[in-house]
Design brief:
Largest sheet: 4 strands, antiparallel
Structural class: mainly beta
Shape: globular
Number of helices: 1
Number of strands: 28
Distance between the termini: 31 Å
Amino acid sequence: MRIYQVIIALIVLVSSCDEPITLPQKEHFLSNGVLIANEGNFQWGNASVSFYDAENDTILKEVFQGVNQRPLGDVLQSVTLSDDKAYLVLNNSGKVEVVDRNSFELQNTISGFISPRYIQIVSPDKAYVTDLYADKIAVVDLNSNEISSYIHCESRTEEMVQIDNLVYVADLEFDQIYVIDSNEDAIVDNIPLSTSINSLKKDNQDRLWVCGENNGVGVVLCMEPQTLNVLYSHTFEGENPSDLFVSDAGHDVYFLSNGVWHINEFTDDVITKPIIPAEGKLFYGLSVHEDKIYIADAINYVQKGTVWVYDLQSNLLDEWEVGMIPSEFDFIEP
């Protein structure tokens, strides 16, 4: 569930006529393809995970439900892959479902949250979970799959990135980034910003990338966390960048704002329009992988969403029907 809400005046529910879910009878069938996290509607309990099977060029729907024979939960906020596990963060259900990343069999459920958003695997034994309403970050023992303690903060927290022993956490309410020492599980610093934080990422040069908006001007900036020097800053009049994607080297950056935008850290060109215009579509999630751009289209929030796949030259390659309100992509390699 995004921070902003869309009020729908009239929703007509039609009984589903879908056929029963049929999944491959193999122990590890998610071996090469794309996981799509479908948020589902708030309080409808219809969150799901779809999977594009690259080997067979097919879409598997409601993977968690098909394997575990029960609903996933209410609002799938985010998915994190780690080693042989996938952590599914259910915002309104207040829990994290831990599944085998290839079979999707449920292994554990971590509960006790108010409104969890993202999970950061800090070490093999520990993770942090941000929360929309708790004013604290949960420290989770990954051996017991229980909350072991909390890191108290001033307001709601969102995305996290880790650089060495420091974890950088987006604070949405006060436009700042918390810096947590993961050895001490304590906030040791904060980085104030002059823009909202819609998305926080890092590249493999250990630089922080932030996108947001300031007084009607969209901002994408790159900073060196040790010195807080701003290395690159791009502005976009009248835009509100979100869903930041940064290539490993940091050279290519993509974001959403009524379309897909692309910038390169080396360019001095003035960028005035998206490379893929939304054209009435409701672009809700974005990722780039192996020279393909993946866009999640929530359509109208009340019907099954679509994934659009483009090449880097903005040519449409494919489209898939997925679940309700697709929002995130994760990639499973063979």
